[in-house]
Amino acid sequence: FGNETEAAVFAKEQDLEEKEDLHKVALLMTNLPKQNTNRSRIVIITQGADPVILAKDGVTKEFPVTTLPLDKLVDTNGAGDAFVGGFLAQLIQGSSIDKCIDCGVWAATQIVQRSGCTFDGPANYSP
Q1: 56 with 90, same domain?
Q2: SS3 for 43?
Q3: Counting Cβ atoms within 10 Å, is residue 52 exposed (0-12), middle (13-18) or buried (19+)?
Q4: In the UniProt entry, which residues are flagged as the active site (predicted)?
């Protein structure tokens, strides 16, 4: 998990061939060495209001995000953490990657509408 800035810095510091194209950076990241070779690596790059990029098994896919009116956007602090929390909440329940990303986008959308990384009321995510 990372945002577009983190992915660009990672690509630069690792001297990856493709530094500008986030789809290519994500694919290169999936091929980095890892401990468990029985499972493929998933790379997810968030881009604020732009689509989320998923890279897995040599393929990238974009997922749209919910665009809020500017008057609803209060504070972006914690949006990435909320995304990861929503994603993992679905992953541990055995949900599809598409549903995991959808829940991550939902969680981030909730957080950016509040000051600080806070949440009021019940979590009412429904795909």
Answers
A1: no
A2: strand
A3: buried
A4: 81
Same structural domain for residues 60 and 71? no
Give the Cα separation of 52 and 103 in Å (integer).
12
Average pLDDT over the chain reads 92
d(CA 122, CA 117): 15
Contact 75, 127 (CB under 8 A): no
**Is 81 a residue of the active site?**
yes
Which residue type does 26 have? A
Choice among 21, 50, 81, 120 that is catalytic: 81
pLDDT digits (tens, 9 = 90+) for 28-78: 999 999 999 899 999 999 999 999 999 999 999 999 998 999 999 999 999
| Domain enclosing residue 111, as ranges | 67-126
First to last CA, the chain: 21
pLDDT in tens, 117-127: 777 777 788 87
